[in-house]
Write a structure and sequence with these properties.
alpha+beta; 2 helices; about 35% helix
């Protein structure tokens, strides 16, 4: 992944749970550093996969809506 991430040629939103128990935040930071014009948003959650029952769900949707509206 890291060898081709720099080839992404569109704005990129990376959403990651701050306390993800499966994938550490360091990997999200690395990905964001590799993809030009990317934005990393850390969500207040421990879950790797968010569901509508997750407290961070509304924030997740809000960031997607704002990104798509740009």
């Amino acid at each position: 992944m890291s060898d081709i991430a720099h080839q992404v040629a569109c704005p990129t939103l990376i959403l990651h749970s701050r306390d993800d128990e499966r994938v550490p935040v360091s990997q999200a930071n690395e990905l964001a550093a590799l993809i030009p014009d990317s934005r990393l948003v850390l969500l207040k959650s421990r879950s790797h996969l968010l569901t509508a029952f997750e407290p961070a769900w509304d924030e997740f949707l809000s960031h997607i809506d704002a990104f798509l509206a740009e």
